[in-house]
Amino acid sequence: MKIAPFEIEQYFDQYEFTTPHLLCASDCETMSTADLLAMADMSLADLGRLRLGYTESQGSLDLRTAVSRLHKSVQPNHVVILTSPEEGIYLAMRTLLNPGDHAIVLTPAYNSLLAVAQHITPNVSQWEIKPTATGWEIDINAFERLVKPETKLIIVNFPHNPTGFLPTPEQQQAIIDIAQRHDTWLFSDEMYRGLELHGTSTLPSAADLYHRAIVLAGLSKTHGLPGLRSGWLIIQDPDIRAQLQNWKHYTSICPPAPSEFLALAALKVHEQLIGRNRRLIEHNLHIATPFFERWAQLFEWRPPQAGSVALVGLTLPSAADYCHKLAEKAGVLLLPSSYLGYDDQHVRMGFGRADFADNLAVLEKYLQAVTT
């Protein structure tokens, strides 16, 4: 059985490394290996002495302990280190879902959060975030109406990619209460957790609130280290964790030793990396706001509450057509919302890169040229 095309990654395959001005990157500003090790007070010589043998399938105890310390009620044995965060989505869906099971997915979403579930079972409902005049909102009552007796899994992503939406603590607890009441599993994608903006408090991890939550996190987005491909799942249930480990033996077997070494370095400076990237996002949003005011006839601006991305309305017939044209004519890359399974009237923009202002200036120069 064929799986749906991974439209986001196919789009980036086409444009990411040939288009000079990226304005839709979902990750934050990265750094060199040497800079990361220096920040963590570790040496390149230590990395050079690392033996490149097999590692523990579940991940090293040191790294799992470092991950557990980011939570209140997570133990090292609850953590499964992944070869990439993407692997965690596949493993969790394969472990939890069977044909005929019902799943609910918060949308729009990164393709695999929806497509892998749909590949396993056709019985998938979409719970769609809705736009407001100034932001985005979720309808908890609409969500609960989607729950069925056969609902096995609820899939959410907070802070949300691509809208930048963050639920209130009360909304988060309502989702967990509904999952608990119906005895369903909750898959919580928390790849952007820690990037709450403008003094907003970080929500508790679902892993600290619900024993049937499976949490995905990693270093690609919040920490700005996607080249490490380092991520993890938190699974408190020992039987489900063992089943997932068995699926893992059919994918990557174990994490790469260099990634584990550098992930430990990153978690040593967890707060510094997060603070650095949060400040950069807020700086870029300060630059973006007057841009959107100047071009209000073209863009509908809903600032993100958290994370490094936002979904921006576009007052044109087709966002996809516009984005392809923009890449080819101006060398500027935006991501059309249709590649996220949403409408064709929005684009995703990213605010976590150091070259954001320069790239936005290129876009504005192009807009000025075509409107004069």
Quick overview:
It is built from 13 helices and 15 strands.
How does this structure look, described?
By secondary structure, this protein is of the alpha/beta class. The protein folds into 2 domains: 7-32 and 271-367, Aspartate Aminotransferase, domain 1 (Alpha-Beta Complex), CATH 3.90.1150; 51-269, 3-Layer(aba) Sandwich (Aspartate Aminotransferase, domain 2). It is built from 13 helices and 15 strands. The chain has helices at residues 7-15, 33-39, 44-48, 61-68, 85-96, 111-120, 140-146, 169-181, 238-249, 257-268, 270-294, 319-330, 356-371; strands at 21-22, 79-82, 102-107, 124-128, 130-131, 136-137, 151-157, 185-189, 213-218, 231-235, 299-300, 309-314, 332-333, 335-336, 346-350. Strands 2-10-9-8-7-3-4 form a 7-stranded mixed β-sheet, with helices on both faces. It has a 4-stranded antiparallel β-sheet with strand order 11-12-15-14, covered by helices on one side. Strands 1-13 form a two-stranded parallel ribbon.
Annotation keywords:
372 residues, alpha/beta, Aspartate Aminotransferase, domain 2, 2 domains, seven-stranded mixed sheet, globular
CATH superfamily of the largest domain: Type I PLP-dependent aspartate aminotransferase-like (Major domain)
The number of distinct helices, counting runs of at least 4 residues, comes to 13
Alpha-beta classification:
alpha/beta
CATH class of the largest domain: Alpha Beta
Task: Tell me the overall shape.
Answer: globular
Distance between the termini: 51 Å
Strand order of the largest sheet: 2-10-9-8-7-3-4
Low-confidence segments, given as residue ranges, are none
In sequence order, what are the helices and strands, one letter per element? HEHHHEHEHEEEHEHEEEHHHEEHEEEH
Helix content: 25-40%
Might you state the CATH topology name of the largest domain? Aspartate Aminotransferase, domain 2
Q: Note the beta-strand portion.
A: 15-25%
CATH hierarchy: architecture of the largest domain: 3-Layer(aba) Sandwich
Mean pLDDT equals: 97
Counted beta strands: 15
The radius of gyration is 20 Å
How would you sum up the major sheet? 7 strands, mixed
Q: How many structural units, i.e. domains?
A: 2
